[in-house]
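pls design
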């Protein structure tokens, strides 16, 4: 395998990149600028590529992103705080984001002679994001096999799609991921807020995995209340 990793610069995708690098299967990183407010993640992806000594391709699709309005990630809409299993997180959906990125990634991989596109979607994303679910990944891979028929053979590798973020946290330790240099927060500030869905999920996963999280957060306590609230509602 020589993989093109869709790498946002976040904890999940950087862990996947480090895993593939350790296995000698990393070809390049592909990062998308889709007009997200948390552009700091692009710098984290660039740093990851430098550390792993692979090409870093940055694709500017901000014009497309401006047409995918209504999301707290791209519009002037407050980023919701809480756990990802809460309905208010649906405002963070960017319509078709993964479908668009994967379509571009498959074309780039085929053009560069890489045989795999790798993406770090995981089970914790299923409730909110339809283009992170196993059925989407399976059908997208089938569609791309037909789209590239006679042009190139490119597989889709999504090793965490049936796992949760805790598994990714364990892999982060296993593969020596510089956790503090990854960026997850949706708020777009200089320090992780500790309250948005992706911050809460990140802190929770590392706590469950028994991983020491060196990331600075503005709020280090909120995640426990968010997790407790969700557990109470599910009982």
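designed seq:
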């Amino acid at each position: 395998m020589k993989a093109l990793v869709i790498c946002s610069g976040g904890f999940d995708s950087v862990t996947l990149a480090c895993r593939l690098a350790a296995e000698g299967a990393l070809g390049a990183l592909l990062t998308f600028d889709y007009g997200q407010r948390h552009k700091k993640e692009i710098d984290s992806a660039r740093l990851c590529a430098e550390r792993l000594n692979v090409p870093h391709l940055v694709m500017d699709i901000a014009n497309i992103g401006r047409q995918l309005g209504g999301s707290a990630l791209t519009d002037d809409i407050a980023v919701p705080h809480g756990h990802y299993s809460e309905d208010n997180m649906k405002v963070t959906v960017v319509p078709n984001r993964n479908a668009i990125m994967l379509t571009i990634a498959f074309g780039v991989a085929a053009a560069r002679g890489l045989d795999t596109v790798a993406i770090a979607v995981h089970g914790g994303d299923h409730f909110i994001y339809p283009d992170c679910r196993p059925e989407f990944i399976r059908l997208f891979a089938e569609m791309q096999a037909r789209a590239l028929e006679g042009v190139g053979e490119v597989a889709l590798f999504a090793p965490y799609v049936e796992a949760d973020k805790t598994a990714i946290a364990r892999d982060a330790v296993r593969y020596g991921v510089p956790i503090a240099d990854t960026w997850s927060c949706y708020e777009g500030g200089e320090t992780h807020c500790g309250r948005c869905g992706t911050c809460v999920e990140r802190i929770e996963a590392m706590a469950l995995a028994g991983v020491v999280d060196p990331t600075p957060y503005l709020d280090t306590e909120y995640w426990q209340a968010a997790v407790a609230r969700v557990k109470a509602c599910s009982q």
